[in-house]
Structure formats: C-alpha cells, structure tokens
Amino acid sequence: MSKNKITFDEFYSEQYGERWESLRSAMLSEEEDKTSPEGLLSPYYMDRASIEIASKLPITPGDTVLDMCAAPGGKTIVLLTRLCGKGKLVSNDRSPDRRERMRRAINETLPENIRAISTITGHDASKWGLYEKDMYDAILLDAPCSSERHVINSAEHYSIWSPSRPKRLQALQYSMFASAMLALKKGGYLLYSTCSINKGEDEEIVKRFMHKHPGEAEEAELLLEYGEKMEYGMIVLPDKAKGRGPMYGVLLKKL
C-alpha cells in the first residue's frame, strides 16, 4: 500500500508541484460545496461546479441534445430543466444499474411534462458517431475519469491505484470525444468535462483532437466561477474554490 501511496502522490505532485499538498488536503475534506438545482419537485444535491458546468452547454428549448455519459443523472436533470419540455434529450449510460438510478432520479425530481422529452439509452459512447453522424445540436460528454477526490477518500481504491488507470481512461476519453464530434451537427457545441485533476484526461484530450483534426472545431468561450484558465478550457480546484470540484470543462464549436 505504501508503494501505491507514493506512486499516487508522485504522479500528481509532478503536475502540481508545491501546490499538491494544499490540493490534496482540500480533496481529503468531506465538506464539498453541494446544493440542488432550482425548480425541482424534490432536491437533488450536487457539487455546485457540476451544476454550473451543465448550465454552460449552449442549448435552447427545441434542440436535440445528447448527454453521452449521463448517469447518475444530475447533469441530465439540469439539461432537462433548461429545455423546458421542448426538443429531445438522449441520456446515455452503459451500466443498467446506473441507468435505473438515473431513471428514478429523473422521475422523482421533474414533472412529467419536463421529463417527457428524455430518452434513456445504454449504448457504447465511443462508437456513437458511427451510427448517428451530424445528429445533435449540442452534446455534453462528462467522461469517465480518474475521480481523484473519490480515490483519495477510499482506502480500497487508493490502495489499488496505479498510473495504468489514467492511461487506460485517456484512451477511452479520446475515443468518446472523437465520437461525440462525429455525432455533432456543424455549428453545434460539445462540452467536454471531467472531475479529474489529471491534465492528461483534461486539456490533453482536446489538444490531441485539435492536432489530429485541424479546422474541424474551435474553442468557444467558457467561464466558470473559480475556474483557472488552461490552454484549453478551465478547471475548478477545491483548494481555491471553497471546496467545489474538481471539475474541468472545455466548450468546442464544430466547424
């Protein structure tokens, strides 16, 4: 276990230098800044940064929207409230258990006229663009990630962590990102987000796509409260954001 602990700390201290200690301490705190989106039938508590990121996807009632990795459902709930019962929202997750949890959350928090436009699916997000090309006005890809705040607070997950995990996740994240761009209409917006502090899972995914597909997308303005600007996008880190996050986000417009 001590070897894994050193590996974890060395991995992230290499990225954050002297700041790693304060960031580590903030993530170990159990007091995350949580609240519930407004206007729900019953509260659904989320990190404020998660609510904020879902509110930044440019959508209007009537749009066709995809929440590519939607469970457990908090961001989908935010998107549904913004669509006001008009248009279509596809909320996707491969796990049957997580889909059922999401379905319950939607049913318990939203009136029927708002949730009626939601379709829950269980497809492979990394292959989505092969089957529904140029279909969506806007896509939220809140990608599976290292979730370091969860890892560092779980003795079990912390003990088995290794650098191979983020490496595997980066491959999955990139395939989902590229798939999302295929599924997006020209002029549409992709909001890519993670709750990871690993730059390799955040802006490096975007940089890789932009390098391999020049001229296919451009970064659009995304402003997050407490967000720290990166080469692409912004990141909210709990040591400087009153406990919020981590939350990385970047907004791209398909050309």
TrEMBL record:
Keyword list, A-Z: Methyltransferase, RNA-binding, rRNA processing, S-adenosyl-L-methionine, Transferase, Transit peptide
Pfam families: Methyltr_RsmB-F (PF01189)
GO MF term list: RNA binding; RNA methyltransferase activity
Limits of the SAM-dependent MTase RsmB/NOP-type domain: 1-255
Residues that hold S-adenosyl-L-methionine according to the record: C69, A70, A71, P72, G73, G74, K75, D93, D124, D142
Superkingdom classification of source: Bacteria
One GO BP: rRNA methylation
PROSITE patterns associated with the record: SAM_MT_RSMB_NOP
Residues of the active site: C195
Gene3D superfamilies noted in UniProt: 6.20.240.40, Vaccinia Virus protein VP39
Record's catalysed reaction(s): a cytidine in rRNA + S-adenosyl-L-methionine = a 5-methylcytidine in rRNA + S-adenosyl-L-homocysteine + H(+)
Similarity annotation: Belongs to the class I-like SAM-binding methyltransferase superfamily. RsmB/NOP family.
UniProt-recorded name of the protein: NOL1/NOP2/Sun domain family member 4
